Amino acid sequence: MGKGGQSHGEIKDGEENMAAWLLGVNNLKIQPFTLPPLGPNDVRVRMKAVGICGSDVHFLKAMRLADFIVKEPMVLGHECAGIIEEVGSGVSTLVPGDRVALEPGISCWRCNLCIEGRYNLCPEMKFFATPPVHGSLANQVVHPADLCFKLPENVSLEEGAMCEPLSVGVHACRRANIGPETNVLIMGAGPIGLVTMLAARAFGTPRIVIVDVDDHRLSVAKNLGADETVKVSTNVQDIGEEVAQIHKAMIGGVDVSFDCVGFSKTMSTAMRATRAGGKVCLVGMGHTEMTVPLTPAAARTHGHYAWSF
């Protein structure tokens, strides 16, 4: 996996392993990628589908995302699925030929957070394509067998690669306790907004309103099951009018808002639109710093406003 090194690539069955290396701003090259030795609990996976995430684009455009800075050449990619080619001596749950989706984050499995089941917060997390860990946009990777999950026959490899972003939406809905009595507002109809919408529907929410600045994205959201859409602007001065539009579209109150954009305006809109005692959940990586109206929000919460990060 990301344990792989740079050097000259590794020969497997006469084939040189190659990967997409980020070398600098807007500088991406296909170069050899040396795999680490196959450990007893590892598997070697031939990649068949790798999604391009917003984080990959951030690294390509700016060589950084929040506090994660690319300081040396790095292989991109973390949304992935493939076919098992080789298994370690201690692996009994997978065999060559199995189609799998890969969990891209390797936690320590020993700290208190991991023991509590919150492995995503592990301080020793090694996550595909998060500096300095290499990613999975390669011909082959080596990864722990326990983090490779067999795909049902009716799930394609492309769908398997999308399990990782879908898990973001599922996690958000779990954090916000979405259910049959929860009306949901989603700020942003990009990929994460859409998977959060789909997850919320699966969790039983009766009504979803989704907002965005782009007509095409809103049409996609509508086709995927949004009850109503609201087109908004980037102008902060429009928040009051847009909140009124959101309330009209929702019909009932907004119980939970998911900000899947992470701008000052989107968070401010979510906080204004959500009913007193409701929940606002920030999903994904937005701007490093945001200015939001905390005091007005606190005045409406009576100590019950929930924040999920």
What keywords describe this structure?
Rossmann fold, oxidoreductase activity, acting on the CH-OH group of donors, NAD or NADP as acceptor, 2 domains, 309 residues, ADH-like_N, NAD(P)-bd_dom_sf, Quinone Oxidoreductase, Chain A, domain 1, six-stranded parallel β-sheet
Helix and strand layout, with pairings?
Blueprint: E1 11-12, E2 15-16, E3 18-24, E4 27-32, E5 42-51, H1 54-62, E6 64-65, E7 68-69, E8 74-75, E9 79-87, E10 99-102, E11 105-106, H2 112-115, E12 126-127, E13 140-144, E14 148-150, H3 157-161, H4 163-175, E15 183-187, H5 191-202, E16 207-212, H6 215-223, E17 228-231, H7 239-250, E18 254-259, H8 264-273, E19 274-282, H9 294-299, E20 306-308
Parallel strand pairs: 15-16, 15-18, 16-17, 18-19, 19-20
Antiparallel strand pairs: 1-2, 3-4, 3-8, 5-9, 5-13, 6-7, 9-10, 10-14, 11-12
Helix pairs in contact: 4-5, 7-8
Can you characterise this structure?
This protein has helices at 54-62, 112-115, 157-161, 163-175, 191-202, 215-223, 239-250, 264-273, 294-299, and strands at residues 11-12, 15-16, 18-24, 27-32, 42-51, 64-65, 68-69, 74-75, 79-87, 99-102, 105-106, 126-127, 140-144, 148-150, 183-187, 207-212, 228-231, 254-259, 274-282, 306-308. By secondary structure, the protein is an alpha/beta fold. The chain has two domains: 18-155, Alpha-Beta Complex (Quinone Oxidoreductase, Chain A, domain 1); 166-299, 3-Layer(aba) Sandwich (Rossmann fold), CATH 3.40.50. The longest helix is centred in the middle third of the chain and has 13 residues, at 163-175. The two termini are 27 Å apart.
